[in-house]
Amino acid sequence: METAVRVQHKVTRPRADALRNRERIVTAAREMFVEFGPDVPLDEIARRAGVGNATVYRNFPDRDALVREVVCSVMDRTSEAAELALAETGDAFEALSRFVHACADERLSALCPMMSSAFDQHHPDLEAARERIEELTERLMARAREAGQLRPDVGVGDLMIAVAQLSRPPAGTATLCFDRFVHRHLQVFLDGLRAPARSELPGTTATMEDLRQTHP
Length: 216
Prior knowledge:
0% strand, mainly alpha, 10 helices
């Protein structure tokens, strides 16, 4: 008599503790990249995350993989902030302002210098994250513009450049000491975006395509 043997294919899912370790590594890496720059030793990141070096390399085989994960995670949270702002039904300009301040809190500008020429800036994950942020930001700006609250001569590129410049500490300035100025200066910038415009801007509206051509 033959006995049929049922073969069960078990779906392997990451354990909860493994996912927590990965999140701790990404969080620690983001903090240390912002504080110390892109060359911080991976073993220091492991120490701050409270995991062993082997755990870091098991999740991220090289520095580029870790940097990409950090940048994508920050972009994803930035997009979530934009979606929350779009879901608001109140003042369109105030929703845009809250999004801009949220962008500064994510410190995306401090991570941008890590994307050097050796870094794969066209990785599909990065491209998708960029496109999502651009589309959501344009929708936020369009809504404020249609409400007559945003001056018509600024574009997404103008906004992104200003946020990056105003939330990145000058050379030789301690990052954590500079933080207290960021939202103050951003608010001055946001006040300048309100319609009606009190001056004529030199040059032309900056788009994200302009930024891509400036930084190939």
